[in-house]
Recover the amino acids of this structure.
């Protein structure tokens, strides 16, 4: 009966909760013995012991649980029951494993299992748990532990999601129908193995009729032919992905696909002007390579599909113009290649063609991918400077041509229609010596000075042509004047010749070879003739032989020469050229007579010859003299410096610059020297003559006299007089701005009042001779006996 009850309960639970047969839920029971009230023996072992068959009491295989439960009560999962449970409460059911106690709870008395929370299959699809029955008192397991699975049953609770949103794609314009654009993908988190919850179907919501989508793969394709980028470039397509195989009630998601048409070269270039005529006006003075004008063509395409090439296909001035392409603006630039001349041609016509640089042969059937334009270039007149008939002029003139002779002419004209008169002049910067001039009206070039080819064989001058009506319009032409040679220079020895002849020389012996030079340059080259002068031909000691190669030999005419009779001979040689008019000159060769050995080597010559051969040149002598003069100057300067060093300086020490004693080493003349300094002046300051001037100050006639303090009254004390006088002079010098910068010490030979012998100076005797008493000299001992005898005697004795 218990087994039947369990089966009935499980069937009722499956029908109530799953709505489907209980094909997945089974309850297998295990008992510890046989059937109730009988022992089931199945056999014996090897020892004859009977064997008892054991049956499993219970085991749960798996449960199914719906996800996303929305009820208020806990969701019932199932019930555990053991054959050992007698209903007396002695059995306790225990649940362990994934989610046990948190997600799943079991009633330990009845074995009912409930889910405590709302479960999501997309988070976890199944849970593995373990159940066992234990004795409530002893906690001993009554049955072995059994494992079972709670599988979460999927419901359609997730909509499809695209992997990207938005999608960006490009497809060439003018693509055929069915051209693939991009493939979109959507995923569904529901269980793809159960029902159609994860089966996605694609459809297009926006973007018809231009594009379509494959419902199974999500591949987007073009659905309309001839889509033109120039008409519409960007498209927005909305794709829907729906699960449940697209049936009603399925969930769906959408994604946006931005599709842009890429450009292809399907449009030809077109000139911008509707009449395809361009009119340019340029001055004739425009420089070569300058832009004349721009041609603009338009192309609806972009990028390299819009690049264009321009070329001239027709012109009435071949080679005058060229056209290039400005790649940044795709404009045609008409460029001047040859100079314009308003007077020769005033208008040009060009046909210019423009075409794509990268044509697409797929669209050639649509028409020619090129266009043409006509360009008219009008030349404007410009006041131009005069133009010389030739770019340069070459004139030839002989060097003996007289002044004011015309040597050639230049010609220039005004190229403009008004044909203004032209005035000519010489650019004096090219003719600083004023050798040439030009006639202002006819352009004749003539000489202002005689030319000399030997000084300058070519003269390069510039002639200026100026319009009378517009002096600012000028042009220049170089004139090259070549000076032609005339035979106006006589030939001469190439160098100064001097040679010797041996005393034992033989007749017709060569002693020297001479040559000549001539600054003229005849067309056929030089040809010189050598001969002995007529005045020396009759009594000549030497002869001249012309070698016909512009050289000549000097030969002896006798067998011997005597240096004692004549030591130097002068041989006159006449040199003439072969040009017209013939030019000639007489050159002298100096020949000295010398003593030679048998081989003809000179051994001894006269003094004059030796000096000439061994002497120094003039330049060497001048250099030697300069060296001698410089050495003398150095010696004199050194001696002067030595002498200056020996002089004792006025100021011996640089540190002591205040008091310096100047010694003159002058000896006084004694009592008879009336010009000596009078000591009486020191004793009587008031007796100083005001007219006397000091030698160490500037005279008062040039500077105002210093204000002197009044002199103190005279004191009879001789020492006091001298002291007061010196103090007064010191004060005067300190307050005098004209006094010398240094103090001078004057020595008066006054010993002062401390000496017992008083003053021995004879200067005092001039004023106090009658008051002197020299008797005390005899008391000073034998050293002063001589003085005592000279001055100590009485007047009576001296008279006697």
């Amino acid at each position: 009966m218990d087994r039947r009850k369990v089966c009935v309960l499980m069937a009722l639970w499956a029908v109530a909760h799953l709505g489907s047969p209980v094909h997945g839920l089974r309850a297998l029971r295990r008992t510890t013995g046989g059937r109730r009230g009988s022992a089931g023996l199945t056999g014996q072992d090897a020892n004859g012991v009977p064997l008892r068959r054991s049956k499993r009491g219970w085991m749960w295989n798996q449960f199914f649980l719906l996800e996303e439960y929305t009820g208020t009560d806990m969701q019932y999962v199932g019930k555990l029951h053991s054959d050992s449970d007698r209903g007396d409460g002695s059995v306790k059911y225990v649940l362990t494993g994934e989610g046990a106690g948190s997600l799943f709870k079991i009633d330990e008395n009845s074995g009912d299992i409930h889910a405590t929370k709302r479960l999501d299959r997309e988070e976890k699809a199944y849970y593995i748990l373990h159940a066992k029955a234990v004795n409530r008192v002893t906690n001993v397991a009554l049955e072995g532990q059994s494992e079972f699975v709670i599988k979460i049953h999927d419901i359609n609770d997730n909509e499809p999601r695209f992997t990207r949103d938005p999608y960006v794609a490009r497809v060439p314009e003018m693509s055929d129908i069915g051209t693939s654009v991009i493939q979109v993908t959507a995923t569904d988190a529901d269980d793809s193995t159960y029902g159609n919850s994860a089966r996605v179907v694609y459809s297009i919501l926006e973007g018809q009729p231009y594009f379509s989508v494959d419902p199974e793969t999500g591949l987007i394709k073009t659905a309309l032919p001839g889509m033109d980028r120039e008409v519409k470039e960007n498209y927005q397509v909305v794709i829907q992905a729906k699960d449940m195989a697209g049936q009603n009630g399925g969930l769906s998601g959408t994604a946006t696909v931005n599709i842009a048409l890429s450009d292809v070269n399907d449009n030809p270039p077109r000139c911008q002007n509707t009449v395809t005529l361009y009119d340019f006006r340029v001055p004739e003075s425009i420089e070569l390579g300058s832009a004349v004008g721009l041609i603009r063509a338009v192309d609806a395409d972009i990028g390299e599909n819009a690049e264009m090439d321009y070329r001239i296909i027709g012109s009435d001035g071949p080679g005058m113009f060229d056209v290039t392409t400005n790649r940044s603006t795709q404009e045609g630039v008409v460029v001047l290649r040859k100079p314009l001349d308003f007077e020769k041609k005033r208008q040009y016509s060009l046909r210019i063609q423009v075409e794509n640089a990268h044509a697409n042969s797929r669209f050639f059937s649509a028409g020619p991918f090129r266009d043409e334009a006509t360009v008219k270039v009008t030349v404007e007149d410009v006041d131009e400077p005069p133009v010389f008939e030739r770019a340069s002029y070459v004139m030839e003139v002989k060097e003996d041509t007289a002044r004011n002779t015309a040597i050639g002419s230049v010609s220039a004209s005004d190229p403009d229609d008004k044909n203004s008169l032209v005035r000519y002049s010489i650019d004096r910067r090219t003719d600083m010596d004023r050798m040439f001039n030009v006639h202002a009206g006819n352009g004749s070039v003539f000489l202002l000075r005689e030319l000399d080819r030997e000084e300058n064989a070519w003269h390069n001058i510039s002639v200026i042509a100026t319009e009378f009506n517009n002096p600012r319009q000028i042009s220049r032409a170089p004139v090259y004047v070549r000076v032609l040679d005339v035979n106006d220079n006589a030939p001469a020895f190439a160098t100064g010749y001097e040679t010797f002849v041996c005393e034992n020389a033989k007749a017709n012996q060569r002693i020297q070879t001479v040559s000549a030079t001539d600054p003229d340059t005849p067309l056929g080259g030089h040809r010189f003739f050598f001969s002995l002068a007529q005045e020396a031909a009759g009594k000549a000691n030497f002869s001249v032989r012309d070698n016909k190669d512009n050289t000549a030999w000097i030969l002896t005419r006798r067998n011997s020469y005597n240096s004692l009779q004549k030591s130097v001979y002068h041989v006159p040689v006449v040199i003439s050229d072969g040009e017209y008019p013939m030019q000639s000159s007489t050159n002298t060769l100096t020949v000295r007579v010398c003593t030679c050995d048998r081989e003809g080597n000179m051994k001894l010559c006269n003094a004059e010859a030796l000096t000439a051969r061994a002497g120094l040149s003039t330049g060497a002598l001048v250099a030697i003299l300069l060296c001698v003069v410089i050495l003398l100057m150095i010696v004199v300067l050194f001696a002067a410096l030595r002498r200056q060093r020996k002089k004792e300086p006025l100021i011996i020490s640089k540190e002591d610059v205040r008091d310096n004693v100047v010694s003159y080493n002058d000896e006084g003349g004694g009592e008879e020297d009336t010009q000596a300094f009078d000591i009486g002046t020191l004793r009587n300051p008031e007796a100083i003559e005001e007219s006397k001037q000091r030698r160490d100050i500037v005279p008062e006639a040039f500077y105002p006299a210093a204000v002197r303090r009044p002199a103190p009254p005279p004191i009879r004390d001789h020492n006091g007089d001298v002291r007061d006088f010196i103090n007064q002079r010191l004060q005067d010098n300190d307050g005098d701005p004209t006094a010398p910068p240094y103090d001078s010490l004057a020595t008066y030979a006054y010993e002062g009042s401390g000496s017992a012998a008083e003053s021995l100076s004879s200067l005092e005797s001039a004023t106090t001779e009658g008051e002197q008493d020299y008797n005390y000299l005899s008391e000073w001992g034998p050293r002063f006996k001589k003085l005592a005898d000279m001055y100590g005697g009485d007047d009576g004795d001296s008279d006697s």
